[in-house]
């Protein structure tokens, strides 16, 4: 796994199993032994495992190594003549492994706009009103609260409701149009409060076991201080005007992209200063907006420096772009990435993509499965069918160790701006949204209890906190998907009806070898309703989402 001429460190967390493969050959017919070695950053050997041939006669060997702590490690393979004494010992190159803290792989993310939390018809929300909702989010089992940009918002070319080009006096603007007379990326929007209010907000979040992820959007409004102080950081058109951002067919007249060609060192140092500032305020994660529109080597530099200074800080790439670029960003050092899960709906698509992220790219690309974002209301949610919202939450939270949802998902928000599009009507990007959380709970019109249950199951079962152990199992229907995850003696089986409207039936053909089950039958307990089942290698399943107490999935635990 080389990138930029160097071998990229394999991504891991403490106590995560890393499978090592090697093809070993030598001249002659003498038998030989093969071992995998794990060393710490000092070169001290901490694990040595005999590698087993994957299939007799293939010369392909496998072993599992487990880094036991955060830090940098190396792995290598040794081969030798298999005699009472080791002879002709040969060692491979030593390859890097980096074990980050657990949140780099595992977490439940929740996104909200502080200006909407606690808002009324006469006033916008602030950090002081938004802080009141933190216990509720923590109670749903989320680990990370992600905030869109909290900085001053530009005035020139400010967008109005639904991306209209004319904003009224009271329209708040797009948070990603960063910068005004009151400051830029290193300031708090005065409409939200003061820096002290933000610090208090972070402190209450920590008290509720929530980490704060802040948006890192490297762009400006026309009113950002950089526009006048560092005009060389921007691209200009032939007429001398600064070019605004475009992502055809979308146009962002209120946003200026940065140009990294004229003063790379200046931009690098300024952005490092901004990141360090927010880290000093208690921010431990950054969701990076559109990283694929910046030079990849810039991210290599930023992430390498931040790893040395603050290895606990995690960066999530928001890069819905071509696979090669998304994977390159992972190799450049991003801890996680948004993914194509949001649009994968069929059994074939989910299976193929699950195998890709769990097996083919997991060494350098960690997925975070989001069911929706402020930018993306996928078409399959636009019917508003609660069962669809429930089954997508099951898939996201059990397929990937990290998953996320944007506020309003639990209220089944689903109105699209235009048919065939993915923009929300009255999008919160352009205006404040007032939600009646308490009223929805009182009326039972919320998915929050189900979300809470899923997150509780995730926290109780280490198998769901792993990515590489994902195995899909054959089913007799394309409407039913089944998969398993295993960690030690913890085995989880998940079966989902992908049809949110009608009951579906299928026989699930469990791969008993992959499950580690030697008996003809086993007991599975569905943790969603605590029902016990006696299942076998070929298990008939019926899931009916249409009833008042409809069933979209089994999330079952098996004792082994």
Protein model, in words:
- The protein is of the alpha/beta class and 560 residues long.
- It folds into 3 domains: 2-99, Immunoglobulins (Immunoglobulin-like, Sandwich), CATH 2.60.40; 110-163 and 182-217 and 264-462, TIM Barrel (Alpha-Beta Barrel); 465-559, Golgi alpha-mannosidase II (Immunoglobulin-like, Sandwich).
- The protein has 12 helices and 31 strands.
- It has an 8-stranded parallel β-barrel with strand order 12-13-14-19-20-21-22-23, surrounded by 4 helices. The protein has an 8-stranded antiparallel beta sheet with strand order 29-28-31-26-25-24-27-30, with helices on one face. Strands 3, 5, 6, 9, 10 and 11 form a 6-stranded mixed beta sheet that branches.
- Helix 5 packs parallel to helix 6 (296-309).
Outline the fold blueprint:
Blueprint: E1 2-3, E2 6-7, E3 10-12, E4 18-23, E5 32-40, E6 45-50, E7 52-53, E8 60-65, E9 71-81, E10 87-91, E11 95-99, E12 107-111, H1 127-130, H2 134-139, E13 144-147, H3 195-207, E14 211-216, E15 219-220, H4 225-229, E16 245-247, E17 250-252, E18 256-257, H5 264-280, E19 285-289, H6 296-309, E20 314-318, H7 323-332, E21 336-338, H8 347-360, E22 367-370, H9 386-399, E23 402-406, H10 437-443, H11 448-460, E24 471-475, E25 480-487, E26 490-497, E27 504-509, H12 512-515, E28 521-526, E29 531-536, E30 538-543, E31 553-559
Parallel strand pairs: 3-11, 12-13, 12-23, 13-14, 14-19, 19-20, 20-21, 21-22, 22-23
Antiparallel strand pairs: 1-2, 4-8, 5-6, 5-9, 7-8, 9-10, 9-11, 15-18, 16-17, 24-25, 24-27, 25-26, 26-31, 27-30, 28-29, 28-31
Helix pairs in contact: 5-6, 9-11
